[in-house]
């Protein structure tokens, strides 16, 4: 089994190779900032360059930059990382600057940007700037537009961020392996005018999928469809932070999908509009209200709404298997099967064996032994008990009086008296039978008269 220590130790030779960049060359590089914390970082206010309204990466961060001769410079480091998917489970992934997904890159429309990419992986890589309009030689497709970035080497990409919008970045080198290991990140190009498309809270997130066997740490990268962990920014519920908003705030959520399947993203308690795609902003005249929008593979959707309903509202993929962790495939349905005799026999051989599935799949507060580094399928406690959710699920917490720029978890919503669904303890009315059929139709037949026909069967005109 590859654990955290052996995973990073195995990467040591690669890290040594990357350190062989010459001192003269290293002196010209911007600092490669590293972030390993799993909590949502505060928005990064622009300290240099043109002003913009920063985004918040759920359970992630924004990459700092330096200004040099009017160019905004960043430094990405492709490297092995260890990511906590949720408390109780870590994964050996590949990412950028200490984390998967990599840090969000924020620039302003018209900025000239220069991105240094250092490779600390055991194989070559590249970076494709998904959705950007740029010179062909900067597009990052290994073998087509550039040679691969060999282990220990640093490449530089330079182009003008021509259009405001929301984009992604990921390798175009051994793509099946590298993306399945978590190599991807978000890119936001803000409009020149900070008032254009302005909102009060702006969240970004990438949807990801992993196949990690129970008890193991490293994804199986040859999986095509049968993934068992569905993640937002390489976190699964209950490891995801809530999104918070003040009552009346205009909120934007930008969702990018680099998994192997589509995801119908659903928000409770609010209507939203799809305001943007990775192709640009949608004109207001072309928007319509939704509560669910499908985000296909390789797409980005930016949704906008007014947080006008206080409470704790679910936000999740509406494919039910995508809101569970450590899923098993080819598991039979056992609803209604009587296990009693079999369970007694199994318990003699396996003490502590638990009957599951005969009354449905709900596990509620059941606690069962799991392999090391394995999450329960459905977990996370709410104010009324176990939420029975995992994977692509988090909560939008809307609160009255929340100050602008405050992203702290406000705790669970305190419902006004009389506004929570409750058990009915009064009398239950008797069920009523359907009315009897008319007596003249004892055989159950019905007479049908065509509209506009007279009694003789002639049609009137």
Structure overview:
Helix content is 8%, strand content 30%. It has five helices and 24 strands. The strands form five sheets. Strands 1, 11, 12, 14, 16, 17, 18 and 20 form an eight-stranded mixed β-sheet that branches. Strands 2, 3, 4, 6 and 8 form a five-stranded mixed β-sheet that branches. A five-stranded mixed β-sheet has the order 13-24-21-15-19, with no helix packed on it. A hairpin with a 2-residue loop joins strand 16 and strand 17 (280-281). The longest helix has 10 residues, at 340-349. The chain is globular and about 80 Å long.
The low-confidence parts are: 9-24
Number of contiguous helices:
5
Distance between the termini: 83 Å
Shape: globular
Mean pLDDT across the residues is 85
Order of helices and strands: HHHEEEEEEEEEHEEEEEEEEEEEEHEEE
Please state the CA-atom Rg, rounded to the nearest Å: 27 Å
In percent, how helical is the residue content?
Answer: under 10%
Q: Give the DSSP E fraction (strand runs of 2 or more residues).
A: 25-35%
Tell me the structural class: mainly beta
Topology of this protein?
Elements: H1 4-10, H2 12-18, H3 23-27, E1 56-57, E2 66-68, E3 71-86, E4 89-96, E5 105-108, E6 112-119, E7 128-130, E8 154-160, E9 165-170, H4 175-180, E10 185-190, E11 201-210, E12 229-232, E13 243-246, E14 250-257, E15 263-267, E16 272-277, E17 280-281, E18 289-290, E19 292-295, E20 300-306, E21 311-317, H5 340-349, E22 379-382, E23 385-389, E24 393-399
Parallel strand pairs: 1-11, 3-6, 5-10, 11-14, 13-24
Antiparallel strand pairs: 2-3, 3-4, 6-8, 7-9, 9-10, 11-12, 14-20, 15-19, 15-21, 16-17, 16-18, 16-20, 21-24, 22-23
């Amino acid at each position: 089994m590859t654990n955290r220590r052996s995973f990073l130790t195995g990467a040591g030779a690669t890290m040594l190779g990357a350190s062989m960049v010459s001192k003269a060359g290293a002196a010209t590089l911007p600092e490669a900032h590293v972030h390993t914390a799993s909590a949502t970082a505060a928005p990064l206010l622009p300290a240099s360059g043109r002003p913009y309204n920063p985004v918040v990466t759920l359970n992630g961060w924004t990459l700092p930059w330096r200004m040099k001769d009017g160019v905004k410079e960043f430094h990405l480091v492709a490297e092995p990382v260890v990511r906590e998917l949720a408390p109780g489970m870590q994964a050996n992934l590949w990412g950028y600057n200490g984390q998967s997904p990599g840090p969000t890159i924020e620039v302003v429309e018209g900025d000239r940007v220069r991105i240094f990419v250092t490779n600390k992986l055991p194989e070559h890589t590249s970076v494709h700037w998904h959705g950007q309009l740029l010179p062909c030689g900067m597009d990052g497709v290994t073998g087509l537009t550039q040679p691969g970035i060999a282990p220990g080497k640093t490449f530089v990409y330079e182009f003008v961020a021509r259009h405001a919008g929301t984009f992604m970045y990921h390798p175009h080198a051994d793509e099946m392996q590298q993306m399945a290991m978590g190599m991807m990140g978000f890119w936001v190009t803000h409009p020149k005018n900070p008032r254009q498309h302005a909102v009060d809270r702006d969240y970004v997130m990438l949807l990801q999928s992993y196949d990690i066997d129970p008890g193991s740490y490293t994804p199986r990268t040859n999986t095509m469809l049968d993934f068992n962990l569905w993640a937002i920014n390489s976190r699964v519920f209950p490891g995801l932070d809530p999104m918070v908003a003040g009552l009346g705030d205009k909120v934007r959520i930008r969702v990018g999908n680099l998994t192997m399947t589509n995801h119908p993203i659903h928000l409770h308690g609010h209507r939203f509009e799809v305001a943007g795609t990775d192709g640009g902003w949608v004109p207001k005249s072309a928007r319509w209200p939704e509560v669910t929008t499908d985000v296909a593979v390789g797409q980005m959707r930016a949704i906008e709404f007014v947080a006008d309903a206080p409470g704790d509202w679910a936000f999740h993929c509406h494919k039910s298997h995508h809101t569970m962790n450590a899923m098993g495939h080819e598991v039979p349905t056992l609803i209604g099967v009587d296990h009693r005799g079999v369970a007694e026999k199994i318990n003699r051989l396996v003490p502590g064996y638990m009957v599951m599935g005969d009354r449905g799949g709900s596990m509620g507060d059941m606690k069962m032994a799991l392999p090391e580094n394995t999450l329960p399928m459905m977990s996370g406690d709410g104010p009324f008990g176990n939420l029975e959710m995992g994977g692509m699920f988090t909560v939008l917490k809307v609160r009255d009086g929340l100050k602008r720029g405050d992203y702290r978890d406000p705790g669970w919503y305190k419902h006004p008296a009389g506004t929570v669904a409750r058990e009915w303890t009064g009398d239950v009315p008797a069920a009523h039978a359907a009315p009897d059929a008319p007596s003249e139709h004892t055989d159950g037949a019905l007479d049908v008269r065509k509209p506009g026909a007279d009694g003789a069967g002639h049609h009137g005109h």
